[in-house]
């Protein structure tokens, strides 16, 4: 396979492109041939063109340091030129499993703010829900439009060493990254028209229409043309590009907290033509900053009185406040039970085995094998608050063990999963890099999953951390027809 793959390391991980050493999977055959015909120099030239185009288009993400004292850095999100390909049968399995999971999670959120049957039946510990920092008492008894709490979900999927898919995390509050799905596809189509022509892939364009339809369906008064706004924290937010792209593509207004005002429990947007009543707010602001009269009093990002208008039924919020309970990393362990409880079905997609460290026997087991485990702080996301045992020093493991002993209820642990690898373009060759998949599901009149979603890549050799906030990149994801 000439010099392009001469040093490609086949390791003890599932490789998306290869079956064993040098044997390409059938659905990657055309792509391999195109890459070999182009060679490394042409690929690098196209990569340079792509990087320049991303700068021109302002496709950026803000990278934060692990130390709060470190300054943030805005940069183009690393984009890997080599697409990830998912077969039709594989996608059918994922599509069914994602829809099933999101339905059950939505049932769970309704239940904990209404009847609390799952708590009464002791399938989930009551204190795990009622003492959860994301539980919002103001939501108790509130009937949200159409019963939909999570119009937009980002479910993180990994593939294990035998090729099976697992759900790694559920992101239900303000999931990010959807814009990159569309920009990745646009860049690939323009840079590799012949390669794109080789494959019949499922269209992703319907996705934003499905999201817009989902948002429209939440309008309290069933207006034929409701006013929908995207509420952003502003230009300094890490995902601001995501906000601007989605607002522009869906034709909705991009606003900050200062652009909105609440009068007589109705929300209005300030405009040059006066005040316009807002019907639906797609919010990209965390619960605690939404309304300084209800949550954090020092918030300057939200809108005073917003929760009062929401509780009165005069405006819809997507996603609903209080949904964070359902993407808590400990509650995650109970999602298969939710599926059986609410849907009377067996889970289509499995969880990664998860240990709850407030349980003494599970904590003891994890502490004795900490060098083999991934430990996560329940309330954090974006790759923060984690210990990856196999990559940690003895000092780091010891320090994390002390945290676990002192605050066991804050952490969960999972065995280190062998994330699948995909060929990625590095500085001077093509090499395997670990990947996951963020799949975006919309709950409107019918659930809809964007075909493919966002494949995220751990660009550092051997790294298992794919988050953009930790320096990871993305690649286009093709689902075959």
Give the CATH level 1 class of the domain at 95-150 and 203-343.
Alpha Beta
Distance between the termini: 28 Å
Given as residue ranges, the uncertain stretches (5+ residues, pLDDT < 50) are: none
Helix content: 25-40%
Helical/strand content category:
alpha+beta
CATH-derived architecture of the domain at 95-150 and 203-343? 3-Layer(aba) Sandwich
Q: Biggest sheet: strands, sense, closure? A: 9 strands, mixed
> Would you report the number of β strands?
22
Q: What number is the mean pLDDT?
A: 91
Shape: globular
Which fold name corresponds to the CATH topology of the domain at 95-150 and 203-343?
A: Rossmann fold
- β-strand percent reads 15-25%
Count of alpha/pi helices: 13
- Measured on Cα atoms, how large is the radius of gyration? 23 Å
Overview of the structural elements:
The chain is of the alpha+beta class and 481 residues long. Among the domains are: 95-150 and 203-343, Rossmann fold, CATH 3.40.50; 354-415, Dna Ligase, domain 1. Helices cover 30% and strands 23% of the residues. It is built from 13 helices and 22 strands. It has helices at 29-57, 88-112, 117-120, 126-130, 178-191, 193-198, 206-216, 240-250, 287-290, 306-311, 335-343, 360-367, 394-406; strands at 60-63, 73-76, 79-86, 152-159, 165-171, 228-231, 253-255, 260-263, 266-271, 274-277, 280-283, 316-318, 350-351, 355-356, 373-377, 386-388, 411-415, 421-425, 430-443, 447-449, 454-457, 473-479. The strands form five sheets. Strands 3, 4, 5, 13, 18, 19, 20, 21 and 22 form a nine-stranded mixed beta sheet that branches. A hairpin with an 8-residue loop joins strand 15 and strand 16. Helix 2 (88-112) packs across helix 11 (335-343). The protein is globular and about 70 Å long. It starts with 28 loop residues before the first helix and ends with a strand. The mean pLDDT is 91.
């Amino acid at each position: 396979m000439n010099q392009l793959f001469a040093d490609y390391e086949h390791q003890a991980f599932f490789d998306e492109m290869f079956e064993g050493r040098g044997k390409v999977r059938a659905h990657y055959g055309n792509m391999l041939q195109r890459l070999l015909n182009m060679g490394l120099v042409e690929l690098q030239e196209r990569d340079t063109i792509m990087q320049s185009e991303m700068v021109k288009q302002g496709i950026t993400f803000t990278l934060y340091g692990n130390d709060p004292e470190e300054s943030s850095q805005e940069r183009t999100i690393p984009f890997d030129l080599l697409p990830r390909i998912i077969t039709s049968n594989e996608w059918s399995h994922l599509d069914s499993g994602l829809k099933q999971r999101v339905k059950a999670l939505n049932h769970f959120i309704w239940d904990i703010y209404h009847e609390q049957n799952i708590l009464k039946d002791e399938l989930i510990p009551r204190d795990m829900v009622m003492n959860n920092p994301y539980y919002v008492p103001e939501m108790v008894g509130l009937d949200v439009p159409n019963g939909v709490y999570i119009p937009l979900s980002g479910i993180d999927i990994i593939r294990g060493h035998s090729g099976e898919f697992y759900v790694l995390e559920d992101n239900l509050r303000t999931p990010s990254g959807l814009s990159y799905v569309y920009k990745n596809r646009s860049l690939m189509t323009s840079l590799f028209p012949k390669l794109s022509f080789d494959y019949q892939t499922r269209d992703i364009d319907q996705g934003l229409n499905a999201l817009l339809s989902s948002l429209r369906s939440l309008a309290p008064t069933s207006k034929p043309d409701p006013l929908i706004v995207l509420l952003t924290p502003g230009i300094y937010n890490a995902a601001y590009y995501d906000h601007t792209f989605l607002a522009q593509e869906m034709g909705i207004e991009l606003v900050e907290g200062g652009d909105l005002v609440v009068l007589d429990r109705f929300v209005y947007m300030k405009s040059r033509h006066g005040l316009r009543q807002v019907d639906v707010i797609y919010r990209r602001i965390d619960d605690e900053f939404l309304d300084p009269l209800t949550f954090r009093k020092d918030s300057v990002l939200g809108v005073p009185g917003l929760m009062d208008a929401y509780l009165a039924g005069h405006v819809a919020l997507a996603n609903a406040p209080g949904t964070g309970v359902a993407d808590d990393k400990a509650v995650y362990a109970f999602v298969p039970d939710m599926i059986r409880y609410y849907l009377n079905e067996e889970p289509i997609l499995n969880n990664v085995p998860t240990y709850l460290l407030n349980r003494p026997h599970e904590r003891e087991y994890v502490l004795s094998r900490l060098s083999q485990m991934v430990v996560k702080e329940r309330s954090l996301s974006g790759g923060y608050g984690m210990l990856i045992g196999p990559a940690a020093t003895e000092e780091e493991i010891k320090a994390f063990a002390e945290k676990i002993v002192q605050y066991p209820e804050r952490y969960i642990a999972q065995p280190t999963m062998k994330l699948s690898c995909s060929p990625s373009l590095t500085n001077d060759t093509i090499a395997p890099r670990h990947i996951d998949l963020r799949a975006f599901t919309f709950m409107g009149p019918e659930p809809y999953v964007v075909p493919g979603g966002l494949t995220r890549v751990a660009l550092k050799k051997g790294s298992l951390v794919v988050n953009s906030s930790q320096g990871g990149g993305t690649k286009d994801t093709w689902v075959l027809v």
